[in-house]
């Protein structure tokens, strides 16, 4: 589904990605782990062209991202961040925004369907800015799902959440992988989370992927994740 081929990226004169290679299978949850500053978030941003690569290539479904219109690419490859940004207004307004980006009419039925899919159907009239962190993350996921992505990029989406909401978001994403045939790349520092959710783990160090393995086979003491 995704192939990263010798990707390089420098930011302000510093080389962040130093020839990254990675293959992610369809409907796989690939965890990307590694110490801070190893290039994990930069790699995610490169995959949907929020950051342009300096060298190499990235293929999505066999097609180079360079051949995609960036807006279309970001519909196919959705991204959810650690701190979700809520647009002004109600939860239903935030979800409707995603539908309108796809050129669809945001009917009450279509908005409710997305809200139900992520478990926030009872919050549609709530002020999005006043929700808890876990609820806002669900709104962000619903807004992204409205674009009907094939790939979901998750940049530490549970890092600021309490343990109960961490497990809720994990279970939600794993359910969506099955129901929507999603392919997921999930950046995390949490070893136990990686073991719970990952089909495989790609370990990044100093701008390179040094190993890709089943979570239980990773020597976590060498990864330096908390």
UniProtKB/TrEMBL annotation:
SUPFAM superfamilies: P-loop containing nucleoside triphosphate hydrolases. Residues 2-225 form the ABC transporter domain. One of its GO terms (biological process) is phosphate ion transmembrane transport. It holds the Pfam family ABC_tran. Keywords: ATP-binding, Nucleotide-binding, Transport. It comes from Archaeoglobus sulfaticallidus PM70-1. InterPro entries: AAA+_ATPase (IPR003593), ABC_transporter-like_ATP-bd (IPR003439), ABC_transporter-like_CS (IPR017871), P-loop_NTPase (IPR027417), PstB-like (IPR005670). One of its GO terms (molecular function) is ATP binding. PANTHER family: ABC TRANSPORTER I FAMILY MEMBER 17. The lineage of its organism: Archaea, Methanobacteriati, Methanobacteriota, Archaeoglobi, Archaeoglobales. One of its GO terms (cellular component) is membrane. This is Phosphate ABC transporter ATP-binding protein, PhoT family.
């Amino acid at each position: 589904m995704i192939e990263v081929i010798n990707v390089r990226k420098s930011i302000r004169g510093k080389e962040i990605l130093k020839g990254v290679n990675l293959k992610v299978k369809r409907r796989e949850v690939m965890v990307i782990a590694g110490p801070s500053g190893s290039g994990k978030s930069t790699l995610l941003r490169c995959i949907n062209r929020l950051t342009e690569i300096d060298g190499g290539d990235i293929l999505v479904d066999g097609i180079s991202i360079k051949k995609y219109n960036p807006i279309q690419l970001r519909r196919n490859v959705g991204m959810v961040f650690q701190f979700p940004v809520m647009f002004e207004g109600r939860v239903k307004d935030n979800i409707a925004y995603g539908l309108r980006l796809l050129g669809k009419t945001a009917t009450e039925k279509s908005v409710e369907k997305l809200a139900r899919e992520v478990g926030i159907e009872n919050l549609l009239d709530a002020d999005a800015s006043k929700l808890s962190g876990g609820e806002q993350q669900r709104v962000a996921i619903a807004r992204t799902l409205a674009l009907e992505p094939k790939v979901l990029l998750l940049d530490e989406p549970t890092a600021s959440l309490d343990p109960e909401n961490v497990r809720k978001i994990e279970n939600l994403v794993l359910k969506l992988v099955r129901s929507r045939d999603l392919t997921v790349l999930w950046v995390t520092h949490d070893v136990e989370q990686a073991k719970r959710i990952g089909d495989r783990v790609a370990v990044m160090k100093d701008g390179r992927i040094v190993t890709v393995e089943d979570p239980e086979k990773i020597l976590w003491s060498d990864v330096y994740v908390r």
